[in-house]
Amino acid sequence: MIIVREANPGDEVYNTYGTMGNAALLHRYGFTELDNPYDIVNIDLTLVTKWCSSKYSHRYAKARVSLWHMLGYSGCTSEDAEYFEISYDGEPQLELLILLYIIFLEPEVYDKLVCVSEDLVGDDDQDDEQDTIDSFAKVVKVTRPAKNGVEKLPDVKKLLQSEGIGSALASIADIRESLYGSSTLKDDEEKLRACSPVGERSIYHSLVLRVSERKILGRLRKHASSWPKTKKRKHT
Questions:
Q1: How many whole angstroms separate alpha carbon 209 and alpha carbon 101?
Q2: Is the pLDDT at 233 greater than 70, yes or no?
Q3: Which of 29, 42, 173, 206 is the most buried (most CB within 10 A)?
Q4: H-helix or E-strand spanning residue 97
């Protein structure tokens, strides 16, 4: 613990736990908070690959993920797992959106990107969000040469927030939520209200985590469903 101002003997001292989600709070300090705004949901890369394989093929999914990696992108890592974070408000990690963008590329555009991929990779790792944006701007110049002005985050998000990517996120959220079994969010909320944080400590904290994650997945679906729909052409 680091003290930030002088304290006299007998003074009450407060400790801040920082910007930690419930999983970290439970692991480090043994408690959770309802509606913790720092909660996130992790979506494994293997789950995204599973969705892609079901929509296309395993070979297709492997090739698209490989190109994404080749271009210098990656998710978060923990031990041997790679995953993406969904924030409390349902905002998906930028790298996940870029992966879905690459997955949806038409074959001829994908082949074109593969041919120039080595030229697009810089010498440095993508250490921050701006590096990722700059890298993606190069990808856009190859895949959508007529598209200009993709140098800032709002522009990148606008391009990536397509109906197809939104639909993919909803499907991935469904797969992620299926890991909780057949019970609904309402069922879990009722169990949580009836659970004692003292007498049923383990179950209580497990339900807090579970309910929070399911709410975030719901926000992800809502977030993705609000993206612009593709306009259908009128046939004359």
A1: 30
A2: no
A3: 173
A4: helix 94-103
Half-sphere exposure of 28 (CA within 13 A, CB side): 10
Identify the CA nearest to 41 among candidates 97, 92, 99, 101.
Answer: 92
pLDDT at res. 235:
47
- CA–CA distance, 189 with 191 (Å, rounded to integer): 5
Residue 232 structure tokens:
């259908």
Cα-trace Rg, the chain? 21
Q: Is 88 helix (H, G, I), strand (E, B) or coil?
A: coil
Q: Are 208 and 32 in contact (CB under 8 A)?
A: yes
Residue ranges of the domains in the chain?
22-39+183-225, 41-172
What is d(CA 219, CA 87) in angstroms, rounded to the nearest whole number?
9
CB 214 within 8 A of CB 188: yes
What Å distances lie between residue 78 and 22, 45, 75, 166, CA to CA?
A: 17, 12, 10, 26
Q: What is the pTM of this model?
A: 0.88
Report the relative pairing of strands 41-44 and 76-78 from DSSP bridges: unpaired
Q: At what angle do helices 94-103 and 129-143 cross, to 10 degrees?
A: 20
